[in-house]
Write a structure and sequence with these properties.
mainly alpha; two-stranded antiparallel sheet; 68% helix; disordered C terminus
């Protein structure tokens, strides 16, 4: 018999055939977008600015434009696949159904590298901020305390996560607006981070140099864009909410595209002024080029502004971590439900909160490794997982719609189901060419472990990895 969550009028929370707890459809468009923006965390642009400015040779806005173009094309492909397979398995399910179950497992396994480490990045960032504010406090206090808080909020359910994140996103955008205005005022007064600018006037604010100059190198821009893929990973995680979103096939594709577009435009606008204010090699402004937010806030707004924003930044990274935590727990749930991960543990849904509670706790345990790893290393690993998922989702559209369904007879279909996903795949391929060696080695090592496990799961690849049929997850 079906049962309903007492606080929701959503669809049945139990599997109609087996009477077990399932995820509930409760989210609407604006809630999904807010979860995505919270995951992306707009203020992360201050954390990555130093490393991307270094790698792109001081053209951060253009690096964001490269990354945004690739992400928008890929978001269209995600939209096509969500309409066909409205599962919380995201890229794992799309590749499984469109190409091969074994390929789907490997993509899902690689995506776990992205999804599992994303919550931990936010704990890492919070540790950086809090250690800067309270250097005398042992960093493990912050890591353990914030991890437990993330776990507790996610156990409350996805609607609570959405409502909590909405307020945080609004305040983030307000702070970014104030921050950008402070930079504008300094630039208009003829100042940058090094002091006065000879002959600088308000008219000099409008320069093309942050986008392109004699120093520009396309390879360097792509290197920067590869790092910045990390900044957009929230848009794809929304696909893991497919089984908790009302009118999934209409709402999620639009929400994913809008999430990527809004965040991308915000990043480009803010980093334009930021690049003008920090025009040279970032090492001359920052002691730690890979952890720049505290120093940027101090140089732009002073000690009081830095303290206030850093205090709030702890809340923003917590909100992002909560959204990332929700995403990875649902991906592991679908892989457990399919049986490619131990079903009793990973396929469990709590009958109390209707959440994959065991997975939420597991992701919390992984977050504790934030006490041992650097931000740059973790960002590199996340980029590997994200690029793997993005590449194969584009290929899945071509395989599923183009070849399996034979929808390449009309010009419109050729454009939608072949040309656009091919452009998306090519743009992600360009980013692959500039992946850091550390990221590539670690990612390949992780994939090798998954391949060994897949060989054991499939009895030496003599059979396909287990999967559910579409009717088992559609409602």
């Amino acid at each position: 018999m079906s049962t309903q969550h007492p606080s929701s009028t959503a669809a049945a929370a139990t599997h109609p055939a087996h009477g077990i707890a399932r995820l509930q459809k409760t989210l609407v468009m604006w809630q999904v977008i807010m979860i995505g923006l919270a995951y992306i965390q707009p203020m992360t642009l201050l954390d990555t600015f130093g490393m991307v400015s270094r790698d792109s040779i001081q053209h951060v806005p253009t690096a964001y434009m490269f990354a945004l173009a690739a992400v928008l094309l890929t978001s269209i492909s995600y939209g096509h696949m969500i309409r066909k397979y409205p599962s919380s398995g995201s890229a794992y399910t799309y590749v499984q159904k469109s190409i091969h179950p074994n390929a789907g497992f490997m993509v899902g396994w690689s995506s776990l590298l992205d999804y599992l480490l994303s919550p931990m990045v936010n704990i890492l960032l919070a540790r950086i901020y809090l250690t800067d504010m309270f250097p005398e406090v042992n960093h493990w206090v912050w890591i353990i305390g914030l991890t437990m808080l993330m776990v507790a909020i996610n156990l409350r359910g996805i609607r609570f996560v959405a409502n909590f994140n909405s307020l945080i996103v609004f305040l983030q955008i307000l702070i970014i607006g104030i921050f950008t205005f402070l930079i504008y005022e300094k630039l208009a007064a003829g100042q940058n981070a090094l002091g006065s600018i000879d002959g600088q006037t308000a008219d000099g604010l409008w320069s093309f140099s942050p986008f392109w100059s004699e120093k520009t190198e396309v390879g360097a821009l792509i290197t920067g864009a590869t790092i910045l893929c990390f900044s957009f990973t929230g848009f794809d995680s929304l696909s893991s909410l497919a089984e908790e979103t009302k009118d999934t096939k209409k709402t999620l594709p639009r929400a994913m595209f809008l999430t990527a577009l809004i965040s991308g435009l915000l990043f480009i606008f803010c980093t334009y002024f930021l690049q003008l204010f920090f025009p040279g090699d970032p090492s001359q402004y920052f002691k730690l080029v890979d952890e720049t937010q505290p120093e940027i806030l101090l140089l732009v707004g002073g000690a009081l502004f830095q303290s206030v924003v850093l205090s709030f930044a702890i809340v923003t990274v917590l909100a992002s971590g909560i959204a990332a935590h929700a995403g990875v727990s649902r991906l592991m749930y679908v892989m457990g439900r399919d049986g490619v991960l131990p079903k009793r543990f990973f396929g469990h849904i709590s009958p109390k909160g209707y959440t994959p509670s065991y997975n939420i706790w597991l992701a919390g345990v992984v977050c504790l490794s934030a006490g041992f790893l650097s931000l740059e290393f973790v960002v590199a690993l996340i980029s590997f997982g994200a690029l793997t998922a993005f590449s194969f989702v584009n290929l899945s559209v071509i395989s599923s719609y183009g070849f399996r369904d034979g929808r390449l007879k009309r010009p419109k279909d050729v454009w939608q189901f072949f040309v656009l996903p091919l452009l998306g795949f090519a743009s992600i391929g360009a980013l692959w060419l500039e992946v850091e060696e550390t990221s590539l080695k670690a990612g390949i090592s992780w994939a090798a472990v998954g391949l060994i496990y897949l060989g054991w799961l499939t009895k030496g690849f003599r059979r396909a990895a287990p999967q559910l049929h579409e009717e088992d997850f559609e409602r």
